[in-house]
Amino acid sequence: MIIYNTKDWVKIFLSAFGFGNAYNAKYLFKTQAFILVYCFAVVYLRHYHYPPEQLAIRLDPTFLSLVGVILGLSLVFRVNSSYERWWEGRKQWGALVNHCRTLAANFHAVLPLHDHENRRYIAAHIANFPYALKGHLRAQIHWEVFEYPCQEEKEAMQRTEHLPYFIAGQLFAKMEALFRAGQLCEADKINLKQQIQGLIDVLGACERIKNTPIPFSHTSFIKTFIIFYAFFLPIGLVDKFGWYTLPAVFLISYALAGVEVISEEIEQPFGTDANDLPLRHLSNVIKQNIYDMLQVNPQASLPVAITRDGVLI
């Protein structure tokens, strides 16, 4: 996720035109180059080879205005659908932060301070869950970020096909073992069960977002609509704007295609694009909070914020 100052208008303006971390703007300008070449060809042919008086049929700009209204409404629905997916992903990870903190606080309240073995085991697996979920959603697990209570646990984690679900199961098993040992009462077990269940609920919600993309017919229709509109736009404007058709078409197509490019980037919020959610940063925050609450030291040093060119990942 790009970190920026909302009051820095100059930097935001420059980023919108491809400077800094606006990777979508840099990608968009490549397509805009083709549109400018096509637009130049239309204006050149109209002025030097096909003047208006030689054409029996001309495209009325009013038609483009009406079509533009329809296209604008479609793009509003498109970007709202994508942003809803992005915001839903952020809400789920916010819920994960709360579940992990509450779970650690509950275990801290019921376990004696001298019970370092159980505290370390629980802290390791609560902190491991966000990293496992991140790796599961991005299909790339980095094993060096995990805490392993023992060698057997490490081998079991690396053998499993669904790591976050396995970790949640281990927390359930530890809770049941503590209950049978008399270290938890019935009320403690109910409270802890709800918080661990919350981890699984977040897992399922994130999988739903990732595995249910926006329908292909919806995205293909918008892209086709934009292409046709950009094709007819210079033809409709050339008689009135002349050579000024080039900047006019550039700005209009930039705005329309830009909305689509932004929608593409945020509709899958768990990736590694510049504006995707900073899952590793959130996982680092959770790990820091969990070990502080349970008052045990991690085997490895606590991680810091990971950035790439000013972008939290």
Structure write-up:
- With 313 residues, the protein is mainly α.
- The protein has two domains: 9-58 and 215-266, no CATH class; 86-212 and 274-312, no CATH class.
- The chain contains ten helices and two strands, in the order H-H-H-H-H-H-H-H-H-H-E-E.
- It has a two-stranded antiparallel sheet.
Note the gap between the termini.
6 Å
Q: Total helix count?
A: 10
**Unreliable segments of 5+ consecutive residues:** none
Can you list the strand order of the major beta sheet? 1-2
- How much strand content do the residues show? under 5%
Largest pleated sheet: 2 strands, antiparallel
Write the layout of secondary structure elements.
Elements (H helix, E strand, L loop, with lengths): L8 H8 L6 H26 L12 H50 L5 H23 L12 H9 L3 H18 L5 H26 L4 H26 L3 H22 L12 H16 L12 E2 L2 E2 L1
Antiparallel strand pairs: 1-2
Helix pairs in contact: 2-8, 2-9, 3-4, 3-7, 3-8, 3-9, 3-10, 4-6, 4-10, 6-7, 8-9
Key features of this structure:
single chain; 313 residues; mainly alpha; two-stranded antiparallel sheet; 1% strand; elongated
